[in-house]
């Protein structure tokens, strides 16, 4: 999707992807990653997700990247924080408490800015991107994470022909194909959620599952 698509969504308040609750798979599976207390977790395409404060309650620092300044302003306001702001080569960097969010393009991040991230959490980031950008996202953004990084990825699976994305369907075979070169993906949960997502059923989608993947970065040689 072009940046204008997302800017319009935030400008018009069409943010049905934003959840008023913490992602359940994050609560269920995060601790199995056994990341050290105090370590930094990267949250790509972060929006104003409540997953970020949840990660902070687990003792993490959080580094997010998000195109929309509206989203980032909303996040800090809702958390009751006033961020310090500075211009960087990646975009305007906002920092307050355990949170740092760059208002910028996830595809422009590099090893230098992500070097301190021990973990990564992706909910509605990979699946927000069309197929050509999904590969680019894994080969640039995820590829810039350090060698020992571990993470959790949440995807949706449904017959793509029955509904246009976003969110897009990303099936297990694609997760394996995208990540297998540099990460070890392990499926930790798959649940049928059609009954909880009436807008998919209303759009004519006949089956809908969510999957959670644990990912371990393989050391580069
Ligand atoms: C589907 S939303 C999910 C937001 C968040 N992960 C959540 O769970 O609520 C995708 C977000 O990615 C942002 N976005 C899209 N492309 C981006 C890019 N190239 N770099 C940074 N953010 C991007 C959009 O503005 C939008 O807020």
- CATH classification, class level: Alpha Beta
Give the domain tally. Answer: 1
- What strand line-up does the widest sheet have? 3-4-5-2-1-6-7-9-8
Biggest sheet statistics: 9 strands, mixed
Task: Throw out a few tags for this protein.
single chain; SAM-dependent_MTases_sf; alpha/beta; 8 helices; Rossmann fold; binds S-adenosylmethionine; methyltransferase; 221 residues
Describe this structure in words.
With 221 residues, this protein is α/β, with parallel strands linked by helices. It has a single domain (3-12, 24-29, 38-217), classed as Rossmann fold (3-Layer(aba) Sandwich). Helix content is 27%, strand content 28%. It contains 8 helices and 9 strands. A 9-stranded mixed β-sheet has the order 3-4-5-2-1-6-7-9-8, with helices on both faces. The longest helix has 10 residues, at 69-78. The radius of gyration is 17 Å and the shape is globular. The mean pLDDT is 96. Bound molecules: S-adenosylmethionine (SAM). S-adenosylmethionine (SAM) is lined by residues 6, 17-18, 45-47, 49, 65-68, 71, 105-107, 123-125, 128. Residues 6, 17-18, 45-47, 49, 65-68, 71, 105-107, 123-125, 128 line the site of S-adenosylmethionine (SAM).
């Amino acid at each position: 999707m072009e940046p204008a698509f997302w800017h319009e969504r935030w400008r018009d308040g069409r943010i049905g992807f934003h959840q008023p609750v913490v992602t359940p798979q994050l609560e269920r599976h995060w601790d199995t990653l056994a990341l050290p207390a105090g370590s930094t977790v990267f949250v790509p395409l972060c929006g104003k997700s409540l997953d970020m404060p949840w990660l902070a309650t687990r003792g993490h620092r959080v580094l997010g990247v998000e195109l929309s300044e509206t989203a980032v302003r909303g996040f800090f306001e809702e958390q009751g924080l006033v961020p310090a702001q500075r211009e960087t080569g990646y975009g305007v960097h906002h920092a307050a408490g355990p949170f740092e969010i760059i208002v910028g393009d996830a595809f422009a991040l590099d090893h230098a800015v992500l070097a301190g991230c021990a973990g990564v959490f992706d909910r509605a980031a990979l699946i927000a991107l069309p197929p050509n950008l999904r590969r680019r996202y894994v080969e640039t953004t995820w590829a810039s994470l350090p060698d020992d990084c571990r993470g959790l990825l949440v995807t949706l699976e449904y017959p793509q022909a029955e509904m246009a994305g976003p969110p897009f369907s990303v099936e297990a075979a694609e997760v394996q194909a995208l990540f297998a070169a540099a990460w070890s993906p392990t499926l930790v949960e798959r649940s049928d959620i059609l009954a909880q997502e009436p807008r998919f059923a209303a759009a004519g989608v006949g089956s809908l599952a969510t999957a959670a993947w644990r990912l371990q970065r393989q050391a580069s040689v």
